[in-house]
Design goal:
The complex is a heterodimer of chains A (about 325) and B (about 525). With about 325 residues, chain A is mostly helical. Chain A contains 11 helices and no strands. Chain A has a domain of about 180 residues. Chain A is globular, with a radius of gyration of 23 Å. Chain B has a domain of about 230 residues. Chain B is built from 24 helices and 2 strands. Chain B has a two-stranded antiparallel sheet. The longest helix of chain B is centred in the middle third of the chain and has 35 residues. Classes of the chains: A mainly alpha (about 325), B mainly alpha (about 525).
Chain lengths: ~325, ~525
């Protein structure tokens, strides 16, 4: 009964926040609402018994995306008009208020979008009602084959064994995002970006204390993936959060790494799986991307560790690149 | 020879390019391009001898793992990508070696392009609808990364629009995948085909997946992102985007329509896609005729030419994808595949030639081009040869494509497509001759010919008088010319393509459709 009330409250809050988000005429307000929407969504995932997705949603959807949005907002807010530099040409400053810009969608566009979204929702609701009650998915087949993989958590088995190819390509997507940003920003070295040491000893001390804790949580989440919700992505996101925090208070972080080291760390996860693929393809006794028998648990942990480092460093570098822009004088 | 190498070699090259510096980046990239091309030829031989190839990745069989599947259709797309990829690589080596502004992009161009190439090959090999989604993300993000490489305001705006459209398309597609998995419980194309049934969730999933892929293929109402993105990117990138990237989502559409949902392709849906395609042919070509900048003209021509591809759905839909042993079905398939290849080669060649012009003259305004034929004969010749194929004049692959489509539409009784094909050909001829007309105008008569946009032309012409044409690296012009010539030569190889196609398409196999053809060919 209590849980039903909580669920209803949560669903109501999600709807309310998204409605307010659409109504918001102020970009900053919209950003804050977006972050709180992400947090509510994370709670919803917890209620749906998907704690790993909840963790990812809270960390990426609300955390890192929120930081990126606020960084972007700071860059385009009207006050920065006086000191915007030459390469600040992505968006004209002063276009912050959504309801004032001429290019902004009007009532007609909102009506169209709302109509289409409503139609789609209706169709989806009808389709979902029509879906078979008993899950037709592959859950049972996955459970039957868990032993052959050597891990106890089905999600990890799917991500790192059955559908390793997809996971590998996702790491490729992450890699692409960072190279794309590097490509636009030019050959700029992360190290050449100005660091602004924060003049707050208590804050720095606290963040310093958080450092070892971040590493501990990262390793724990990584290890947890073997038998419980957790794994490379969650661990990587925690690592990224730690690295971003360090950078924010002016402590050494990924921006202190030489370029080659940074690239190596970013490619690490992708390259490790690539090596596995090349090796197994060359040795014709294996299928491509097949783990040697008995080694699969070790291999999974190795791949996950490499992926964690890559995910953490890539996300942190992405956020720092965006954040540092508005610090430029 | 494992088809996996088609994915591994570009990825290896990309990793190497990221870790190397200086000129080594380009050499590593070229080596990887050559390697991929070689692997593709070996693969072609294998597909030629053997019907279809199927591999289970990680040793997990299909309901659990992801399978790779290669048939004649996928092979043609792989071949097109490899041909364009190799020559674009050669071209890019010259292009990015030019000025400091371009050299800045080189260390980023190569890794992104190689990942893109691996992703495209992955799409053509994939037999899993979720895996296809991930690959589409790889392809889309890499394409956006390449579009914004130059960092100009124009390209950033175009790139952002491209990103949003591509993301929206992918998400819609993913929604369809989720619905289909919840209803059927499989992700593999052929397992889905076996268990397909008509129900509300599958129909909605079909609509969502088709809609998402249409957005990514830039069919008429969703074409808005294409021209600015393709026109504002650096020349080798434009060639890649227009020549090969646009084909990936179309390929997936073919798989979805004719493998997974053959029973849902009723005449109405097919005619709808065909109508959108017809509108794209006419509207895109008309817009191309109106352009005054060469790169924009070529980009709008892509919108038009992509429309031809969608006649296939209209031509084949009445037979429900089940009985397609009719002669015109073979013709429609061959024509469409020929159009994919000929448009890919010709369009890449056109964009590369436009890039050469841009390097030589610093502008791609058509009005600034008088007497180009005299000053830059090879580039003008390339424009002409590629244009011939685009128009569909006899010796070229474009002719075979349009002829086959024309015959198929008449034979199937859907004569209205023949009218659109003919009109589209005329409009194509109009914009190709518009370009050539500007190129052949003698320098003395140019002022009388530049009526379209007087004040703009004056400025361009003044600056033109001041400077001579700058030299363009020979390798670049030759790479563009090679693509155009390949496109014409390809027209002579129609029989081989017809022989290669039915492998796995089930065309020669009497009633039963694709998956029947597959199951016969797969387990010998």
């Amino acid at each position: 009964m209590l849980s039903l009330a909580f669920d209803l409250l949560l669903a109501g809050a999600l709807l309310l926040v998204s409605w307010r988000l659409l109504q918001a005429s102020d970009l900053f307000q919209a950003t804050v609402l977006f972050i709180s929407f992400g947090l509510f969504l994370a709670l919803a995932w917890v209620r749906l018994q998907a704690p790993d997705i909840a963790l990812a949603e809270a960390a990426v959807g609300a955390g890192l995306a929120g930081v990126l949005l606020i960084g972007t907002f700071k860059r385009i807010e009207p006050q920065s008009r006086q000191n915007h530099d030459a390469n600040d040409d992505v968006q004209p400053p002063g276009a912050c208020r959504l309801d004032q810009a001429a290019a902004c969608p009007g009532r007609f566009h909102y009506g169209m979008a709302g109509g289409c979204a409503g139609m789609l929702t209706l169709l989806l609701a009808l389709a979902v009602m029509d879906l078979p009650r008993q899950g037709t998915g592959l859950t049972e087949i996955v459970a039957d084959n868990l032993e052959m993989v050597g891990v106890d958590h089905p999600v990890t088995a799917v991500l790192l064994a059955f559908r390793l190819y997809d996971t590998w390509l996702e790491l490729g997507v992450l890699l692409l995002a960072l190279i794309g940003v590097f490509g636009v920003r030019g050959a700029q070295d992360l190290r050449s970006l100005p660091a602004h040491p924060v003049d707050a000893p208590v804050l720095r001390g606290l963040v310093l204390l958080l450092g070892p804790l971040t590493v501990l949580v990262t390793v724990h989440l990584l290890w947890l993936g073997d038998h419980a919700p957790g794994g490379a992505f969650q661990a990587g996101v925690v690592l990224a959060a730690g690295l971003v925090l360090f950078r924010l208070v002016g402590l050494p972080s990924v921006d202190r790494l030489p370029r080659v080291t940074l690239v190596c760390l970013v490619v690490l996860g992708f390259a490790t799986i690539l090596l596995l693929a090349v090796a197994t393809t060359l040795l014709s006794i294996y299928h491509p991307l097949e783990y040697p028998p008995l080694w699969s648990k070790t291999m999974i942990l190795t791949l996950e560790a490499a992926a964690t480092v890559s995910i953490g460093v890539t996300l942190a570098a992405l956020v720092i690149l965006v954040l540092v822009v508005d610090e430029e004088p | 020879m494992q088809p996996v190498w088609m994915i591994l070699i570009p990825f290896l090259g990309a990793a190497a390019c990221l870790l190397l510096r200086g000129r080594f980046v380009a050499w590593a990239g070229l080596t990887a391009s050559g390697g991929t091309f070689g692997a593709c030829l070996a693969q072609l031989l294998q597909v030629w001898n053997q019907e279809v190839i199927r591999i289970d990745l990680g040793g997990w069989t299909t309901p659990l793992g992801i399978g790779l599947y290669l048939d004649g259709l996928g092979m043609m797309f792989l071949l097109l990508t490899a041909l364009v990829g190799l020559l674009v690589g050669v071209y890019a080596n010259g292009f990015f070696g030019r000025a400091a502004d371009y050299r800045r992009m080189e260390p980023y161009f190569w890794p992104i392009w190689l990942v893109l190439w691996g992703g495209l090959n992955g799409v053509y090999l994939s037999s899993d609808i979720f895996n296809a989604y991930v690959l589409l993300e790889v392809v889309g993000l890499a394409a956006v990364g390449l579009t914004i490489l130059s960092g100009t305001r124009e390209s950033l705006v175009a790139g952002l629009r491209y990103l949003l459209a591509a993301m929206f398309g992918s998400l819609i597609y993913l929604l369809g995948v989720a619905l289909l998995y919840a209803e059927i419980g499989h992700l593999d194309l052929f397992r889905l085909a076996e268990q397909m049934r008509v129900s509300l969730p599958t129909v909605i999933a079909f609509g969502l997946m088709t809609g998402g892929l249409l957005i990514k293929s830039a069919l008429l109402p969703f074409h808005f992102w294409l021209p600015p993105a393709h026109a504002s990117a650096p020349a080798p990138v434009s060639a890649i985007l227009s020549g090969v990237v646009t084909k990936a989502s179309f390929f997936l559409l073919l798989r979805i329509w004719f493998v997974v949902f053959p029973m849902l392709t009723v005449p109405l849906t097919g005619q709808l896609l065909g109508m959108l395609g017809g509108a794209a042919v006419l509207w895109g070509s008309l817009q191309a005729v109106r352009q005054t900048r060469l790169k924009l003209l070529v980009a709008y021509s892509t919108v038009g030419q992509l429309g031809y591809l969608f006649f296939l759905f209209a031509l084949l839909a009445p037979s429900g994808g089940a009985t397609r042993a009719e002669e015109w079905a073979v013709m429609a398939w061959t024509g469409t595949v020929f159009h994919v290849v000929s448009h890919g080669l010709a369009k890449a060649s056109l964009f590369m030639a436009a890039g050469c012009l841009l390097l030589a003259m610093d502008t791609d305004e058509l009005a600034a081009m008088p007497d180009m034929a005299g000053r830059l004969p090879v580039i003008t010749f390339t424009l002409g040869v590629a244009g011939v194929s685009l128009m569909g004049l006899p010796p070229s692959a474009g002719f075979v494509a349009k002829w086959m489509l024309l015959k198929a539409s008449l034979a199937s009784g859907q004569w209205w497509w023949a009218v659109v094909i003919a009109l589209g050909g005329l409009l194509t001829a109009a914009y190709v001759f518009k370009v050539l007309a500007f190129a052949f105008v003698p320098a003395a008569r140019r002022t009388t010919n530049s009526r379209s946009d007087p004040h703009e032309n004056q400025g361009a012409l003044e600056s033109k008088d001041a400077q001579a044409v700058r030299p363009v690296p020979r390798l670049m012009t030759l790479a563009a010319l090679a693509l155009a010539v390949l496109c014409v030569l390809f027209g002579f190889r129609a029989e081989e393509v017809i022989a290669l196609l039915p492998h796995g398409l089930g065309l020669d196999v009497s009633p039963g459709g694709l998956y029947l053809g597959f199951s016969q060919g797969e387990r010998p």
